[in-house]
Write a structure and sequence with these properties.
single chain; alpha+beta; elongated
């Protein structure tokens, strides 16, 4: 009890209770709805305001600051209710879209209530192993031939350098004088095709996959110029073991469950509505418009207006 009395948050909550207790006794009984003139501030809301203040200012709010924080929350609620009373939410695309998003999040979050077992994740993983294939990884050294320095001769210079390098080891001294310095790295260790595609361009990444380790080969074109490449190690791609990717499996499982929960919830909501379409415009003066026809699906009816 003594430790609780020393907690600053307890003091703020007590102050908040003293400041806003009249709301609890003066407002009529019933739920807190937008039609009520009473505004309830819960201890959870007050605590959240205090924590937000502490995270921003690295200190506890004073009594006056706490009162202002709670008044800001009251102001927000007052303006929200007055806006609803004036019908400002009607026909507002942004409000409509936001409420639709909240409904979608609410429907999808029902899936998060179920914590999957290891057995469930293993079964799901066995059905989706293709999503967890580890890509091949390449370790290689390259020589760079810059079009900015060599112009149209860059590729031909690379071809001539390759002749000199035939049969030479990766660290041959010939390589030191054969090409220009590269702006990034001369040697890359265990890089995936995805990384190489970002670093050199997709053409280079695809060419690397065709190069056999153990010799200088090329020229290989990149988005930066031409290269001679010596692949010294290749780690083939493989399907990851379940234990290696269990966290990723759970994340993917949750995404799928939320998508299914949302799809199911929407179908149930959609089935309660009938969509009315306007009749097509009258193309011939004096002719009676015909009712519009639209196909219905299994999620709800569609009928002419």
């Amino acid at each position: 009890m003594k430790q609780l009395l020393r907690e600053p948050l307890f003091h703020f909550l007590l102050i908040g209770a003293l400041l806003f207790t009249p709301y609890y006794f003066l407002q009529p009984a019933g739920n807190n709805t937008t039609n009520s003139k009473g505004i309830r501030l819960s201890f959870e809301e007050i605590s959240q305001q205090v924590l937000l203040f502490q995270s921003q200012w690295n200190r506890e709010p004073t009594t006056e600051e706490l009162a202002q924080l709670m008044e800001n929350r009251v102001q927000e609620e007052v303006l929200y209710r007055e806006a609803l009373a004036l019908g400002l939410d009607q026909g507002d695309t942004i409000v409509k879209r936001r409420l639709a998003q909240k409904m979608q999040f609410l429907a999808a979050d029902t899936a998060a209530a179920h914590e999957p077992t290891t057995e469930e994740l293993q079964l799901w993983y066995q059905q989706h192993t293709a999503q967890f294939t580890l890509p091949a990884r390449y370790s290689f050294r390259h020589l760079y031939f810059s079009p900015d320095r060599r112009g149209v001769n860059a590729r031909e210079d690379a071809v001539q350098a390759l002749v000199q390098l035939q049969g030479q080891p990766e660290d041959t001294g010939v390589a030191d004088t054969a090409a220009h310095a590269f702006m990034f790295q001369d040697y890359y260790r265990e890089r995936s095709p995805e990384f190489l595609g970002k670093e050199f361009g997709p053409t280079f990444a695809m060419a690397i996959e065709q190069i056999k380790p153990g010799s200088w080969q090329g020229p290989v074109e990149s988005g930066l110029g031409w290269h001679l490449v010596f692949v010294d190690d290749l780690i083939p791609g493989r399907v990851a073991e379940f234990e290696e990717v269990i966290t990723d499996v759970k994340t993917a499982w949750m995404i799928e469950q939320k998508a299914r929960a949302w799809e199911k919830a929407y179908k149930e909501m959609r089935a309660r509505y009938t969509v009315l379409l306007p009749a097509p415009p009258d193309e011939t003066p004096g002719q009676t418009p015909q009712p519009a026809q639209a196909p219905a699906d299994d999620s709800g009816d569609v009928a002419p207006l």
